[in-house]
Amino acid sequence: LLLFHSFNNTKNADPFYDLSISSYEKILVNINDLKLSDEIIISFDDGYRSILPAVDIAHKLGFKTNVNIVTSKINIPGFLTEKDIKMLHNKKTLIGSHSHTHKDFSKLTDFLLEEELTISKKLLEEIIEVPVEYLSLPYGGYSKKTFYLASKYFRKILISRPLIFRDKRIE
Predict the structure, then answer these.
(1) How far apart are CA 97 and CA 69, in angstroms?
(2) Strands 134-136 and 156-158, sheet pairing
(3) pLDDT in tens, 143-170
(4) How many CA atoms lie within 13 A of 37 on its CB side?
(5) pLDDT tens for each residue of 26-51
(6) How far apart are CA 66 and CA 64, in angstroms?
(7) CA gyration radius for the chain?
(8) pTM, two decimal places
(9) Of 8-22, 87-101, 148-162, highest mean pLDDT
(10) Which runs of E-coded beta strand occur in the chain?
């Protein structure tokens, strides 16, 4: 699984995670040249609208894709709309939750954690009209309690930690 967030200096995005679309395409082409596209899923967290061309590039190169969405951002300028989410789902992109408000789950009470999980799951399922089985934990924050509660609602739980890597040859 390779995780991306936003592209081309997306407004309000963390610059650490923002990448030029041309650099992203070079990364995927290099992976594709190694004949690894069947083994790697390209994943996107947060739900920035700038991912739409990136999903198309991944599909063109034969990669599967997954988008994990912060549901409180749906239909806000710069983020995916309900129409975008339906379109991605129809293109066989797996739609997952990245919470409702992007809070660190390891710091929430049981009540607030369940609220983050259930609200986001319900909103996404209303949009794509199928069960949402994937959850990507915001900030990679988790505890035993997080896994216990999340596993009540989601079949797959994704955890990410930043890998500090920038290859200047593809910038």
Answers:
(1) 5
(2) parallel
(3) 888 889 999 999 999 887 655 444 444 4
(4) 17
(5) 999 999 999 888 889 999 999 999 99
(6) 7
(7) 16
(8) 0.88
(9) 87-101
(10) 2-4, 6-7, 18-19, 41-46, 64-69, 94-97, 134-136, 156-158
The helix/strand/coil state of 13 is: coil
CA dist 146 and 119 (Å) reads 16
The residues near 91 (Cβ < 8 Å, ≥ 6 apart) are 55, 59
Which amino acid is residue 32, in one-letter code? N
Using alpha carbons, select from 18, 16, 20, 79 the residue that is nearest to residue 47.
Answer: 79
d(CA 136, CA 49): 18
pLDDT tens digits, 102-117 = 998 888 999 999 999 9
Q: Is the dihedral of CA 137, 142, 144, 149 positive or negative?
A: negative
